[in-house]
Amino acid sequence: MTRLTGSRVVGQLPSLLGPFVVLALAWELAAGTIVDPRFFPPPSVTLPLAAELYIEGEFLTHALASVRRIVLATAIGASAGIAVGIVAGWSHRARLLVNPHLAVLYPLPKIALLPVMFALFGLTETVRILTMALAVFLLVAINTMGGVRSIEDVHIEAALDNGAGTFDLYREVILPGARPQIFSSLSMGFSVGFALLVVIEMLAAESGLGYVIWNSWQLFTIPRMYVAVFSINVLGVLFVHGTEILGDVLTPWEGTYQP
Amino acid sequence: MSDRPARPQAATVQPRDPPMEPPRTSTDDAVAGTGRQSADNERSVRIRASGVEKAYAGQNGGVQALSGMNLEVYDSEFFCLLGPSGCGKSTFLRLVSGLLEADAGEIDIRTESDGDRPTTSMVFQEKGIFPWKSVLDNVAFGLKMRGVGKQRRYEIAREYIEKVNLSGFENAYPHQLSGGMAQRVGIARAFANDPQVLLMDEPFGDLDAQTKRYLQEELLSLWSESKKTVVYVTHDIEEAIQLGDRLGVMGARPGHIKEIVDVDLDRPRTRENLDIARLEELQTRVWDVLSDEVQRTVERR
Q1: Closest CB from B118, B128, B175 relative to A163
Q2: Which residues belong to any copy of the ABC transmembrane type-1 domain (chain A) (predicted)?
Q3: Where are the domains of chain B?
């Protein structure tokens, strides 16, 4: 399976790298003629700077701080979301209890809650992570619930008729039946998570790529800002599409995965 | 409606080779329960349903799906439950399987006490196999649930995959299979479970005529090999007569057995040795019983 995933990633590389290459070339040509290189430094400036900044180490610390936040937030949000989504999808009573809360919280931009969260828990790393985790949780819970509810009754009947107990029902029917939707919500969760990450780091952090973007803008170190912007972009592509690919590999019955 | 007078019941049935047919005297509401004594003596009863009632809760009060349902199914016979849609035949099958519980009445299934063979196994209408499992894992599923080791259950599963002519597709997923192939997986799963009674809920209802004919023959050969008791639900008169030893013709709202019809056609019922005249007689007779039911059902729509 790992080998297959590898070949899938290699196969996708041209389509993922293509836009970066096209943008870089156009930018390089345009800088100094059409656009102001002070605000839009060409890749010939930013790429060597990126190498320099990352080797220097400080930038790596910021990138790792961002990765740590997004990974922790998604891990917390997704595992809680899957658990709640499965229970609420399966049990009518649990759904009646949970669904209104999810429905009310879901459309609220979670960033609006940031001050409230700080007021509750203080200006801490926990709050930054929990705010992102909340967004991921709602997305994953709602989609997992939908995934569980979309499982056909006949599959439940077939499992019971073949002697499945409660545990078997979860392992053999409910989890695999909801898995495609769980993975697509995880992938969406990462993209929502990145959006929140950058804003939170800009507003209320002393580390992370979002912090570097805003800090560079204020200090007018524009090339440094672009290094951070593209770092975020690359991370986003890796996490969002990586999850999609992993999901395709783990749901071979969907037929979307062609090795 | 046919213009000829309703045939008198073809009650006296020629005893066929081995297990003797019980003398059935079917009248319009002859339920299988009548004449239980003689049936018991001559042929062992595998499933006995008496006074079964089942209602579904609905928005405008409940719907009585079955009422006063009496039926006996003999050992090793191929029994077809025939009736218009909505007559409760699938509900009855689910009561027999234990997926549903009757509100009143009893369903007894005589079980042999050998090992851990399941009492019943069901072949579902369509989509009854798991899309997220390969053919092999689908067929081995019931065995897995009963705790049969991996090697052994795959061995058994492969055997039945071969019997339904799906060798080479062990690792395929259902989305890669045609409807007929998918239904074979369901049949292989049920047979691999080696149940004492096989329940089939319109298994070929969604297939085209040729595939259907082919799978019916395949099923009959599996059945004659295993001599399992089969309860086969269908709304297709021709299919029921083609397959069944006896037919239970059902009436609707609430569902009940209207008449039991013996299908005294020799097996194998191939084109060459099929008594066409008798087949047509049986069809007419079943149609006569069903037609007013069907009319009632249609008028309600």
Answers
A1: B118
A2: 63-247
A3: 126-195
